[in-house]
Amino acid sequence: MQCAYCLQKKGKRSCPGLGGLICPACCGQHRLREIACPEGCVYLEEGEVYAGKKLEQLFLGLLRETVELFPEERRDALSEALSHLLAVLYVVLSSDPKIRPEELVRLFQDIRSEFQLIIAPSIVALPGQLANMRDQAIKRLTELSSAHAQAVFPEALDGLILFFERLGRERPVGAFALGLRAFLEGMLGSEWVQAYDWREQPARPDPLLIH
User: Fold this and answer.
1) What's the rounded Cα separation, in Å, for the pair 162 and 62?
2) Are 6 and 26 in contact (CB under 8 A)?
């Protein structure tokens, strides 16, 4: 039987989102993007595990590279700043699992301009939902982070923006969002995630240092 998505290759997996069989290539490329995948799909869960492992290598490597660029006396501040920004990233991904890497770049460029007016915000205005998330994120970052962390937000944001650009060259976030959210929650812990959920009253978490 042909793949229910491309109608060319042989369908080998049962796809509850399409109500038929799908080839592995289309499943991997289009899940959570063009295909409305329901929770509990076994292939979606397998993809989440794979994405999480791949992102862990890419993400931790970038974090270490970013921290090691700083003088020893500034690394604690950078680690704290990155922890705050990663918590924001988790909440953004939870609010919009289909957000694209280029949208993340625009969102965090706008946040960066708020803390140091060296680069301009994105030329194209953010759509309403992203603009609201940007404003809420800036509010949380101002409420919860120390002055030392705020001082190095521009450099920490540069590191995150580089990660989004690298991720965009690999593939759109798509199914990666699930793995990235699971990885971030495991690395940060629930107290950081809860503190940055703008639907709740913030509680200041203890500094989390990334070395």
Assistant:
1) 9
2) yes
**Residue pair 93/181 in contact by the 8 Å Cβ criterion:** yes
DSSP class of residue 21?
E
pTM here is 0.68
Q: Which amino acid is at 25?
A: A
Q: Which amino acid is at 23?
A: C
Strands (E), the chain: 13-15, 20-22
Cα distance between residue 72 and residue 51, in whole Å: 32
pLDDT by residue (tens digit) across 123-176? 456 778 888 988 999 999 998 888 989 988 988 898 888 877 776 666 555 556
| Residues forming beta bridges with residue 2, ordered by sequence position | 10
DSSP secondary structure, 75-135, as one string: HHHHHHHHHHHHHHHHHHHHH-TT--HHHHHHHHHHHHHHH-TTSPPPSSPPPHHHHHHHH
Is residue 201 left, alpha or beta, with left meaning phi > 0 and alpha meaning psi from -120 to 50? Answer: beta
Does 118 or 62 have the greater pLDDT score?
A: 62
Q: Which residue has the tokens 């796809």?
A: 15
CB 209 within 8 A of CB 79: yes
Using CA atoms of 59, 64, 65, 71 in order, give the dihedral in degrees to the nearest 10: 150
Q: Are 175 and 54 in contact (CB under 8 A)?
A: no
Q: What is the tens place of the pLDDT at every residue in 4-53? A: 999 989 988 888 888 899 998 888 778 777 888 777 777 766 665 555 56
| DSSP category for residue 73 | G
